[in-house]
Structure prediction request, 130 residues.
Amino acid sequence: MSTKRQFANRYKELVATALAANPEPKHRKRNLVERRSYNLAIAFDTHRTSILRYMNDLQVGWTNNQAERDLRPTKLHRKISGCFRSQSGAERFAHLRSYLSSTRKNGSSAMDALVRLYEGNPWLPSEPGR
Prediction:
């Protein structure tokens, strides 16, 4: 049996054990701890494909750290200044951060990307399939 299949089978066993450990109580509703543990077991069962995706697609990261890193500048700005002064200012900030994040992920430095942007030659992603 392949290693992937062994991991998938073990995952399935663990979910089944979790569901068996959280049966529906008789003559009452679940308390908070029972509800949370049951909901967690259901979530692990429902999202099995997404949780195990990294086994079949090595491009998928094991964590969401990149997403958290992308949000950090916005949270830091909010922490320091409290808010954006206008909706258009917030949108400009988001556009610029998104542009810089994309260029960095494609191997270009922020300074190079900004220079190209202000020279009228912005970095653009390559077309799909090229």
Residues 22 and 34 are 7 Å apart (CA to CA). The mean pLDDT is 86.
